[in-house]
Design goal:
By secondary structure, the protein is of the alpha/beta class. Helices cover 33% and strands 20% of the residues.
């Protein structure tokens, strides 16, 4: 009987200790430390404009009705748009193009993919010449210019359309075809010291984070991957950041998807007034996650977007015809093997 009484006493001691522990900040901190967040990833700028981090694309859309008005209005004012004409726009400023059949996991896997290259000139330089696409001499230059002006790409009948993203310091040529010939023109401009200008309508996109900064006292705002591992919530499947925050941090959290991220990143907004844990506990966890780079403060991402765009685009390659890497047979190759581009 004494042994049994002793066991019961120990059991009650454990229950009391657990009851006291559950009412301390240590439980809150320990729960937060079980969350295994993943750093948000964004594509390194390339020829493929569809991979660029475009704040205008992400934010100028309808917002969920549950998003607080002050937050929605601040986000709407984040991107500033200006439009102007340049009679003699330097075509060499174009680094990215809006469309190509050779971007991403295209239907033409044997082509040298534009999404791999940092700029259109580099992509054009990497293309292996054929009888209908080349960038070796004056005749090629004339043919390439004629193609983008008269066939597809940048018609001579109207001003060309250019988007400039200030946070990336990048000009994007807006077109629906002619990407290979345009890239070849840019290659010849860069590597053969040629010049080419066009009348352009330029839309400049820049950022003004003042309205968003005014909300820093009201919201914790950050970007992170949309899913994470939370072993106390799920043994196997990952959970959403919304689920984890609502379980351990706050009664309310608002999220917006960052559609052009590599790994499903989201913007998170947690109202400080709705925290259900101690602010000191939350701030310590938050700082630790920033140090581990699993969280990026949203204003830091806004102010230094390009610094976070570091992940190169890759996809599975089934085949790729690279031609002669030494370029010793370029003149011969130009006269054979017709290839249909664009």
């Amino acid at each position: 009987m004494k042994i049994e009484a002793g066991k019961n006493k120990i059991k009650w001691h454990h229950k009391i200790i657990r009851w006291l522990y559950n009412r301390t900040p240590y439980l809150q901190s320990d729960n937060l430390n079980t969350l295994q967040l993943t750093p948000p990833k964004f594509y390194k700028p390339s020829v493929d404009a569809g991979l660029l981090f475009d704040w205008h694309y992400e934010l100028h859309r309808s917002y969920p009705p549950y998003l607080p008005n002050d937050l929605a209005e601040a986000l709407k004012k984040l991107v500033v748009t200006e439009k102007y004409e340049i009679p003699n726009f330097d075509f060499s400023n174009i680094s990215s193009l809006s469309h190509s059949k050779s971007f991403g996991p295209s239907l033409y896997p044997a082509r040298i993919n534009g999404s791999w290259f940092a700029d259109a000139a580099s992509w054009g330089q990497a293309m292996y010449p054929s009888d209908n696409l080349s960038g070796l001499d004056d005749s090629d230059w004339e043919q390439n210019i004629w193609y983008i002006e008269n066939r597809e790409g940048f018609s001579k009948s109207r001003p060309i359309t250019i988007n400039y993203f200030e946070w990336l310091n990048r000009f994007v040529g807006v077109q629906s075809g002619g990407s290979h010939h345009a890239a070849m023109v840019l290659h010849q401009i860069k590597n053969q010291k040629r010049s080419y200008t066009r009348h352009a309508v330029v839309t400049k996109y820049s950022l003004n984070s003042e309205e968003l900064a005014n909300l820093l006292d009201n919201y914790c705002m950050f970007a992170t991957a949309g899913k994470l591992h939370a072993p106390k919530l799920s043994d196997s499947d990952d959970v959403t950041i919304d689920q984890a925050v609502c379980e351990y941090i706050s009664f309310n959290v608002y999220t917006l998807a960052i559609h052009r991220s590599v790994n499903g990143a989201v913007m998170c907004f947690i109202p400080y007034k709705d925290l259900k844990i101690g602010n000191d506990v939350f701030q310590q966890w938050y700082k630790n996650q920033i140090a581990r780079k699993t969280i990026i403060p949203l204003l830091d991402l806004v102010d230094n977007t390009l610094e976070y765009c570091t992940t190169p685009y890759i996809h599975e390659i089934h085949s790729c015809h690279l031609g002669d890497p030494r370029r010793t047979n370029d003149k011969i190759a130009k006269s054979i093997s017709p290839v249909s581009f664009d």
